[in-house]
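Q: A reviewer asked whether we had any structural model of the full assembly, not just the individual parts. We don't, so I'm hoping you can provide one. Inputs are below.
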Amino acid sequence: MIDIIKRNLSRLAASYSEIHLEKRLITSLVLSNGMIEDISKKEVLSGNIRILHKGQWGFVSFSNISDLDGYIEQVLKNVDAALVYSKLKRRIKPYKKIERDFRTDYRIDPRSVSLDQKYNLLVSYDSLLKKFKKVINRKLTYIDKKEELFYGNSEGSLISQDKTFTGMAVVGVARDGNNIQIGKDSWGGYEGYEIVKGHEEAVEEAGRTAQDLLKAEMAGGGRMDVIIDPKLSGVFAHEAFGHLSEADFIFENPQMMDIMQIGKSFGIEELSIVDDGSMKKEAGSVFADDEGVLADKTYLIKKGTLFSRLHSRETAQKMDEPLTGNARAINASFQPIIRMTNTYIEAGTHSLEEMLSSVDNGIYAVDYVGGQTNLEMFTFSAGRAYKVEKGKVKGLLKNVVLTGNVFETLKNIRMIGNDLKLFGGLGGCGKGGQSPLPVSTGGPHMKIENVLVGGV
Amino acid sequence: MEELLSGIKKSVKDFDLFICTSESLPVVFENNELKSIEGSFHEGAGLRIKNKDKIGFSSISDLSSLEDTAKNALDTSGLGEKAFFDFPEQKSAEKDLGIFSEDLAETSPEAMLAWGDHYIRNLLKLNNKLKVNVHLEKDVLRKRLFNSAGLGLDEKKTIIDCSVSIFLAQEKNFLEIWDYFSICDVPSGEKIQAILDNIHFLYTHAQKSASVSSGPHKVYFTPKAFSTLMNLFIQSFNGKLFEKKISYFCDKIDQSFIDKDIDIIDNPGLYGYPKSSSFDGDGLAPQTIALIKSGVVKAFPLDLQTAGKMGLHSNGHSLRSTTALPVPGFTNIEFNVKDETLLDKRKAIISDMDEGLIVDQFLGAGQSNIIGGEFSSNVELGYVVKNGKIAGRVKNCMITGNMFDFFSDLIKADDVKSDYSGFSVPGVLFDKISVKVKE
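A: Here is a predicted structure for the entire assembly that you could use as a starting point for your response.
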């Protein structure tokens, strides 16, 4: 593949050019109520050519990677059409030449594990869910992916990545008449088969949650003090601030540049938010991004002030800031856009007990269903929550959705816990029609004042 | 094709093969400027087999390797689910659904650049600080389905997707408004103008802010917002959820659920609609089904396997991609209000509201326990109505409650329907919707 890339790069007469070629082999099994519902093996080939010529981008993607002649012609044609329309001269930040082969480090190669063994693992987890009598539907999903990614650019970089992703998810649905509740969990990352073993407790917890939520009350709703667990802290870091740190939302917008000035205060001194694609094994880990830039650790907020942001080559050039290795695409069918990798809030000093004892009347929200932001407002749904009265955790609550203004809520973080954890899994982030992109999110417990909580 | 099929037949006797090819031309404008003109050329195939009555599946994007795919499918069939169907023989004659346009297929990047430019120039007249994004994408698609029972189906489709958004950031107070259409033919001037008119209306009324108190309110959902709500609502009608007995409606077939004047129909044959098709993922002719007829819960989409497991017949609602086994799914959903006294012009519906909300965009809808009906969403773009007039934009506001209950309090609906992403729906006014506000 690298030879195909080298041969064709030399034929692209452009100020910058790059070629991706990819092969993905995916094995998946779905066990539903103890029976296989879906089992498959997939092979996906894809590639793309992207050029910057006379200040205009051209991009073409394809699934037939054996003969690139027609695609080279097409990408040049697209740029010619753009040049007739637009006088804008786009530029990109250059980067050093990288010639490396990367490989995921794992203990057990999932391809060495037979389908029968994978099936038996799911069956053993299923037997744990079965114990919860009100759980009427049990679903366990297993996936492993071998990704062979090849990249070259006109700066001379040639990068091969041999990545192995393994993960699984569990969902239990409990029902009592019209009351239907869900418990779930997921784990996954760039690791081997070892990552899906030993999750008996988490599987049981998913079943227990679904069953217990049948008896949960609705949250009253309104403005409340909230303690969020490490999973929700991660979603908060990702949704509430991570997206706002993606420079493509900022670099061509003077108003946003003003709001997001480096050095501005965004929260208490204990607050630091990080994106780090160079971490090992996490779901969002990359060796190099899809513009050939090595992954790095980037502080978004450091000690409460805006420290830096996430960049592609184009935004880094325009804003004259360092490259961060955050130009990512879900696969070679798409152009790289600025995306997070592993985003988390650094640990603070407080224990959960201290946080709880500081709350008179609020909620303790645990686990997440999902989250979304429009940069100004964020929203995320807790998997479950508990009332907190005079420092004590009380009854279980359901349908707890937290929302707020990003800037106000960051300022309203009052306590940051000492128990940082990161979470990956089978889900991911969606942006610009590219979903799901594997990411990890995490943080410690946090206490936030004055959050709008949905409920009846 | 015969050669490809005979390659598979060497390894397996019972199978179907679904092949898709696509050529796409996205023209993308970001922040008032052209970002790129793209080209996308993809193909892929999904092979489903029956081996000793068990299902195996494999997919591939290089059609020259189909024999290897057959081996992979055989490998998976050892553990596969029991098959509850036979591959169908050819029955349906393909009919003209208006889903392929030679004119659209031939539409040039230059024409698409002109549409994008038109949007940007006109929207900047509202405020030159706006950042306008336009994403235009033309797709020329071909799907083919063959099986070992002799079936051979072939369908071409053209689609143009057009989404337009404006963004304005002022002092940590952001405004984003978007609109879009997706059709199978070259868009008319009227179609292009409709997005401009809608964004103009929404932007103008967002210039003032207004507040509302927490509690039950009349809420008018625009067609765009209502299509979001309907998309969540119909998930509980998926045949898979009925088979697993986790649909809210499992035990409500033939029971009255909403106003007797409402039908909710899944119609795969709507002329010129991107989700229309003359055959489903199993190769059957899709049937029009009433999810709700005269307020009564009636039917749900089924594919061959799910129907077989339930002892029922498929209604031709198998959705399929090349990378997964077929599943039951929806096509074009119509929300029809039959009682004319419930219908009115949108302007009249709003002017008849003494006090309430208009909701146009949600933030985070669908991230609750949707199959349980639980709904809690931030109102990303909403307006307060006072004395029949739009008083201004409302923020820090959530719509909450059980969405199945929303439908029991329909007061009025638009007398015309709009199309959003496979939903042909009116704007609707519901009573007693729970609103939470950060007071």
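A: Points you may want to mention in the reply: Chain A has a mean pLDDT of 95. Chain A is about 20% helix and 40% strand.
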